[in-house]
Amino acid sequence: MQFSILTDYFGTYMEGFRGTILSSLLALAGSFLLGTLIAVFRISTARGLRWFGTGYVEFIRNIPLLLVVYIFYYGPSAFGLSLDGFTAGTIGLTVYTSAFIAEAIRAGIAAVPKGQTEAARSSGLTYVQAMIHVVLPQAIKLVIPPLGNQFINLIKNSSVLTIVAGLDLMYFADIVNSDTFRTFDTYVFVALFYLVLTLPLSYVMRVWERRLQR
Amino acid sequence: MIDFHKVEKHYGHFHVLKSIDLHVDEGEVVVVVGPSGSGKSTMLRCINRLETITSGGLTVNGVAVNDKKTDINKVRRDIGMVFQHFNLYPHKKVIDNITLAPVKVLGVSKTEAEKTAMYYLEKVGIADKAQAYPSQLSGGQQQRVAIARGLAMKPKIMLFDEPTSALDPEMVGEVLDVMRTLAKEGMTMVVVTHEMGFAREVADRVIFMDQGQIVEEAAPEQFFASPREERTRTFLSRVLSH
């Protein structure tokens, strides 16, 4: 093990680490909002929205992540546009994760007693207001453990950015590797960087879950 | 104020409501009794369209509840509802349970809504629990909060769907007391209940339902002393014998 790689290339690693953090945070917030919206579509009484939600989830979660990222990386060029690797990768990651989050939140919504919606609606709240103020806050509480899993997956999945030159941790690790030819050592340090992100997240999720059980 | 005209409701092949004709006047307290599954709750829930009707006419304050053009949220503002299982929002404090609808639906300011909420909490006798969460309250207290929540919208009508059925016996009284006061103040109320004592004492009119029909409708003295229908007599002999 050559620890000098870590110290010599610390700046390079950190640049990738920042990219991974930024992409993960954006995709985390984005997929949470998008997933919640899709979950609400899936249980909507409006048939069009329901079909759209179901189609979205079934299409996205049944194709590989890499393919979703390619759609956003190569797709726009068909319309004369172009997205850089970081943007396309982050959007792809957001869209992909949102399908799984939608399923988790849908299960949470289904687990909120029907009386809650009835109480809210009978007081004159609209469907959307009842969702936002009454149902969703309770639904999300119920699905924190599966959401935690999705968020951890998201951070690890962000490594897909490297394939579209997305300036993430893996991308910069490849640079370190081609400089040093110490492949194993280089990537062991990458694993450490990922663990620095994911282990605290697992811990926070566990604490949060325990607190809600009380 | 509330008008059912030949209302029918089917759940698939199940005929839940059969030609319901019912009229409730302003300030009237109508108590609906009958065996489980007789359609009492369903009828009540039609009034604010938690249940839709299959055919017939149903108007509240002159507005056709089931008309597609009717803005149901507007109709519901004027109808408070209290449920068997309270249905308080567990993630919100008592005070926030009560202010949610006035703020979001009526557009009242938060301070104003809190003032109103405290007034009604005072009225139902649990102002000291304003900052508590529903899970910290007893069933009777929760149901009183639910009543305060309904009243905070200053509705013209209050609907009660078996408000004491999920309560421990010693808590039934406190909820009925609140309802009694409300009735005395002239609130228009439709109450589905198994509390015969309440019906006898507070109702202006008692409705007996069985198998989706209104079987009998009478003033409480007459209803309990000399019911006309055989089915009513059978029902009363069963519920009053113990």
Automatic annotation (TrEMBL), chain A:
<keyword id="KW-0812">Transmembrane</keyword>
<dbReference type="GO" id="GO:0043190">
    <property type="term" value="C:ATP-binding cassette (ABC) transporter complex"/>
</dbReference>
<dbReference type="GO" id="GO:0022857">
    <property type="term" value="F:transmembrane transporter activity"/>
</dbReference>
<feature type="transmembrane region" description="Helical">
    <location>
        <begin position="124"/>
        <end position="144"/>
    </location>
</feature>
<dbReference type="InterPro" id="IPR000515">
    <property type="entry name" value="MetI-like"/>
</dbReference>
<keyword id="KW-0029">Amino-acid transport</keyword>
<keyword id="KW-0472">Membrane</keyword>
<protein>
    <submittedName>
        <fullName>Amino acid ABC transporter permease</fullName>
    </submittedName>
</protein>
<feature type="transmembrane region" description="Helical">
    <location>
        <begin position="93"/>
        <end position="112"/>
    </location>
</feature>
<dbReference type="InterPro" id="IPR010065">
    <property type="entry name" value="AA_ABC_transptr_permease_3TM"/>
</dbReference>
<dbReference type="InterPro" id="IPR035906">
    <property type="entry name" value="MetI-like_sf"/>
</dbReference>
<comment type="similarity">
    <text>Belongs to the binding-protein-dependent transport system permease family.</text>
</comment>
<dbReference type="GO" id="GO:0006865">
    <property type="term" value="P:amino acid transport"/>
</dbReference>
<feature type="domain" description="ABC transmembrane type-1">
    <location>
        <begin position="17"/>
        <end position="205"/>
    </location>
</feature>
<feature type="transmembrane region" description="Helical">
    <location>
        <begin position="20"/>
        <end position="41"/>
    </location>
</feature>
<keyword id="KW-1003">Cell membrane</keyword>
<keyword id="KW-1133">Transmembrane helix</keyword>
<feature type="transmembrane region" description="Helical">
    <location>
        <begin position="187"/>
        <end position="208"/>
    </location>
</feature>
<dbReference type="InterPro" id="IPR043429">
    <property type="entry name" value="ArtM/GltK/GlnP/TcyL/YhdX-like"/>
</dbReference>
<dbReference type="Pfam" id="PF00528">
    <property type="entry name" value="BPD_transp_1"/>
</dbReference>
<keyword id="KW-0813">Transport</keyword>
TrEMBL record, chain B:
<dbReference type="GO" id="GO:0005524">
    <property type="term" value="F:ATP binding"/>
</dbReference>
<dbReference type="InterPro" id="IPR027417">
    <property type="entry name" value="P-loop_NTPase"/>
</dbReference>
<protein>
    <submittedName>
        <fullName>Amino acid ABC transporter ATP-binding protein</fullName>
    </submittedName>
</protein>
<keyword id="KW-0067">ATP-binding</keyword>
<dbReference type="InterPro" id="IPR017871">
    <property type="entry name" value="ABC_transporter-like_CS"/>
</dbReference>
<keyword id="KW-0547">Nucleotide-binding</keyword>
<dbReference type="InterPro" id="IPR050086">
    <property type="entry name" value="MetN_ABC_transporter-like"/>
</dbReference>
<dbReference type="Pfam" id="PF00005">
    <property type="entry name" value="ABC_tran"/>
</dbReference>
<dbReference type="InterPro" id="IPR003593">
    <property type="entry name" value="AAA+_ATPase"/>
</dbReference>
<comment type="similarity">
    <text>Belongs to the ABC transporter superfamily.</text>
</comment>
<dbReference type="GO" id="GO:0015424">
    <property type="term" value="F:ABC-type amino acid transporter activity"/>
</dbReference>
<dbReference type="InterPro" id="IPR003439">
    <property type="entry name" value="ABC_transporter-like_ATP-bd"/>
</dbReference>
<keyword id="KW-0813">Transport</keyword>
<dbReference type="GO" id="GO:0016887">
    <property type="term" value="F:ATP hydrolysis activity"/>
</dbReference>
<dbReference type="InterPro" id="IPR030679">
    <property type="entry name" value="ABC_ATPase_HisP-typ"/>
</dbReference>
<feature type="domain" description="ABC transporter">
    <location>
        <begin position="2"/>
        <end position="236"/>
    </location>
</feature>
